[in-house]
Amino acid sequence: MGRFFGVDTSNYRTSAALFDSESGEWHNAGRLLEVPAGRIGLRQSDALFQHVQQLPERIAQLESGFGEQLTAVAASTRPRAVEGSYMPCFLAGAGLARSIAHARGIPFYEVSHQQGHLAAAALSADALHLLREPFLAWHLSGGTTELLQVQPEGALFSASILGGTEDLAAGQLIDRAGKLLGLAFPSGAQLEQLADACTQPERPFRPKVSRCRFSLSGAQNKIEQLHRNGASRETVARYAIDIVGSAVMDATRQAVEQTGLPVLCAGGVMSNRRLQQRMHDAFGAKFAEPTLSGDNAVGAAVLAAVLSGELL
Asked: What is the pTM for the complete model shown?
């Protein structure tokens, strides 16, 4: 059994992590990228530059000398484990991780950002066994709203898109609602706080869900209309979150009826407590704790252990 180092440099957060395959203990050092006020997201060149600046600080947050005890290293090198999936921001973490592995003379493994999300969620939910059997998974984050059918493949697993949004991602809808209300980016946690204070929720717009797929662009228009009509910030926040919840619930129901598979939820949007409660009550869905719901490097470190034959 050994210790494993993971790196993830997404378009939202710089992350480095350690995972001990014997004890199951992990340490994630992450920091959100800085987005100028009034903007939603960063250009890839700006994200890459911030990662280069922030990676040394994130690694310094891990215990001194950890490199001497490493068994293997992994990094997220692309968004999804499919041909053509590419995002420049992952170059920062991949290059650093590859260099550390070479300097130590240990294996380096490439994984996808999405695979890392699922591995971190499975670890956090005490459900690593799912990675060795078919299951359904939501990857619900700032730029991704995908309902996946996951199955073992080789040493890891593959994920095919079964459903999700056909246009606007759930996280984008949340962040646009947040911008409308003057919240900082990313807006999920702040929007949830406002929604929790809502005492008179509006009946939410319910996106049509067909074959596990839906559109959220019309939902944005409904949110903007509610805001223009003078609804309170709390009411608008609750309305936006309930719209996402309605679409996710209906798509999940269709997928479970179709496959009968268990459900694992990953991604920052899935840290929303209201959505978690609804998904758990209806489907027995499993979730990551908040730290491992959003972008993190623990999943990459866990997959390094799997690929080394030290886990599962």
From this structure: 0.94
